[in-house]
Amino acid sequence: MFEFFHRRPYLIYSLMSALLFMGIYGLITMPKNLFPDVERPMVIVMTQMPGATAQVVTSTVSKPIEEEIARLALVRDISSVNMANFSIVKAEFEYDKGLNAAAVDVNNALSIVKGKLPSGASPAIYTTGSFTLPVDIVTLSPKNDLLSLGDIRKIADSFIKPALLSNPQIGNVEVFGGYKSAINVYIDPIKAARYEVDLNTLAKTIMAVNKDMPLGFSKGENGFFTLTFYGEANQVETLKMLFIKPNLHLGDIAEVEWGSEKRFSGYVGNGNEGIALSLQRAPGG
Predict the structure, then answer these.
(1) 42-130 to CATH, choices 3.40.50.620, 3.30.70.1450, 3.40.50.1000, 3.30.70.1430
(2) In sequence order, which residues have a C-beta less than 8 Å from that of residue 208 and are 6 or more positions away?
(3) Pure H helices in the chain
(4) Among 11, 53, 138, 194, which is most buried by a count of CB atoms within 10 Å?
């Protein structure tokens, strides 16, 4: 073997040049990823079943879903967590399946099994992996008194988040730190009782203004009920003049103000209170 290559030096040079060329070509064309997806594709099916015990959820929701998913190709493992009102089914697939194909197959399986589920069940599909972890967190804080944290939260929700999501490499952006803009309706329970206004009826009446806007109730220390309406500032006057009963406006039994929802979270970055943006990469991004 040695004599063969020793008598043909140009062949050695050619082979070395070919290997060098293939190495440079592979370095240039080979895809590079700082955060590669190394986990097997996993799809989670979460189902709400209000009023059901863990045993009922297991037999009527989780079991039919597991049996249907088990028919899919390249399924590696299926497990479930069952609790009162909730079913969580996890399906792990082989690498050859791919995350998108796994999600599509699970969605098709749910379409088939939906007729076997109870009428109140509402399954939802989620994909999970290392891409669900944040790759960066950005803090936004006001430099002066011209902007408040509420203003920055509004800017982050309305402008910065949509702009970041337009990048295909970014899968999701979570904004947190409190100060989410909302209309607060402070309901006086004494006035509500005087006019015989039921709080549930009141909530339904306000939801009729915009059915897509969620509502939230909380009770303050002064006895007032606070109803949080996630609308816009220009809807304050509209809500004040909203008829709850004939000749009774919402403003007659409540104070309607534009502000922010009750804070349950906060964020401190670089020693200053601020609004944080958690950036998650897209699968394969």
Answers:
(1) 3.30.70.1430
(2) none
(3) 2-6, 9-29, 54-57, 63-69, 99-113, 149-155, 161-165, 189-194, 199-207, 236-240
(4) 138
Which architecture, in CATH terms, is 181-260?
2-Layer Sandwich (3.30)
If we measure between CA atoms, which residue out of 42, 83, 87, 46 comes closest to residue 63?
87
Supply the pTM of this predicted model: 0.54
**In 3D, which of 89, 88, 93 has the Cα closest to residue 72?**
93
Dihedral sign for Cα atoms in the order 157, 158, 159, 164: positive
- Residue owning tokens 């998650």: 280
Rounded distance, CA 43 to CA 61, Å? 16
Name the DSSP class of 64: H
Tens of pLDDT, residue by residue, the chain (285 residues): 667 767 777 888 888 899 999 989 888 888 777 666 678 889 999 998 888 888 999 999 999 999 999 999 999 999 999 998 889 999 999 988 888 899 999 999 999 998 888 887 889 998 887 777 788 889 998 888 888 888 888 888 889 999 999 988 888 888 888 887 777 888 888 888 888 888 777 777 777 766 545 555 555 555 556 666 666 667 778 878 888 888 888 888 888 887 777 777 778 888 888 899 999 887 766
Nearest to 177 by CA among 199, 155, 162, 198: 155
Q: How many residues does the chain have?
A: 285
